[in-house]
């Protein structure tokens, strides 16, 4: 199994919850929720029962429907059906794809109160309203958001654990890697942008180093997402598909903000709000909102009408960019790998950075201000994050983050932002393809360190 950070989070949950709550793993399809849950059961418990509601036999359904009020019989029949001995406080029961059978989720309250076993649920699109209609959501349930693999996990899969450790240590000490390791890390970063972080794709790439095979699997996943949109998006399916198809075009623009006029000249935000909510709630995209007054509480000043829409996985973005063809041309993969890309590499780099920040548990914010005829007050900052600032007794401060896809670039927006909001800011970061550099409160980091923020 591919090594995932979520496994350690599951172990921490087990030790803290001690049977007093269930854990729901939420995420898009194919991000590895079921695999991690099963590995957790194998490594941390004497026995595990996996109830897969995507393959729900009549015999198992009858157990849930007829024995839900008699837990002694319920557990006995589950144990017999799955030929697995359940051991008090040393067994795990997994409800896989639980959104397909909401009554099982409603049972969690009583199962947790019984206290005999631990419970993990996994679900795709699980918080969409139609999947929880007419059931009582259990309060005895905590949630774990799971997305595609981040760059560090990709390094682990590629058996570059030592390189990943060296990257994190270099960031902590703010010391550049030796040139040879820097070049290796940048090569690994480009491979990551091409392959992405969907575990099935990564697994195939690790085995064969074949970008064509990786592209085929990515397109299959995009097909599954399209099917999900048709099944679950109800009256918004058309709008959701329009948005999803236009993400590459929107990100290829200089500003990268999503403009509804690209879909329809007469489009109004209120007509599309639910479609964007659906995509975000389904974890298919990462929405980045404009924080108009950068303070430590970035969400207090978010402008819901001004946002960027990234794809949740950069590897899928590569394949989606060439969705009009049956496969992504080999030369595209080759050019990205050897830093000779002819299309807008900035969209892939910025999407990949957004993916790393999201994987680190951050909500995504940017800053944009346009003042007609006033260049000094017109500026755009790719991302805003909050980090402890060593020159303010480690109190949190806003840190602007600029993403550069080329080695030659300017920092005029960053300079203007510092001049306008200097008292509120901590360190400022430039993510670029070059080596790590420190110049006072401005820290320039190689792109492969974006996940360390």
Characterization of this structure:
With 453 residues, this protein is α/β, with parallel strands linked by helices. The chain folds into two domains: 5-145, 3-Layer(aba) Sandwich (Rossmann fold), CATH 3.40.50.300; 151-452, no CATH class. The chain is 43% helix and 18% strand. It contains 16 helices and 14 strands. It has helices spanning 5-17, 33-44, 58-66, 71-81, 102-114, 151-157, 161-173, 179-195, 199-208, 211-232, 237-251, 269-281, 314-321, 330-337, 345-359, 412-421, and strands at residues 22-26, 47-52, 91-96, 118-123, 141-145, 285-291, 302-311, 364-369, 379-381, 383-389, 395-403, 428-432, 437-439, 442-446. It has a five-stranded parallel sheet, with helices on both faces. The protein has a five-stranded mixed sheet with strand order 10-11-12-14-13. A hairpin with a 2-residue loop joins strand 13 (437-439) and strand 14 (442-446). Helix 8 (179-195) crosses helix 13 (314-321), helix 10 (211-232) packs antiparallel against helix 11 and helix 11 (237-251) crosses helix 12 (269-281). The radius of gyration is 23 Å and the shape is globular. 41% of the residues are buried. It holds the Pfam family AAA_14. It comes from Bifidobacterium eulemuris. Keywords: ATP-binding, Nucleotide-binding.
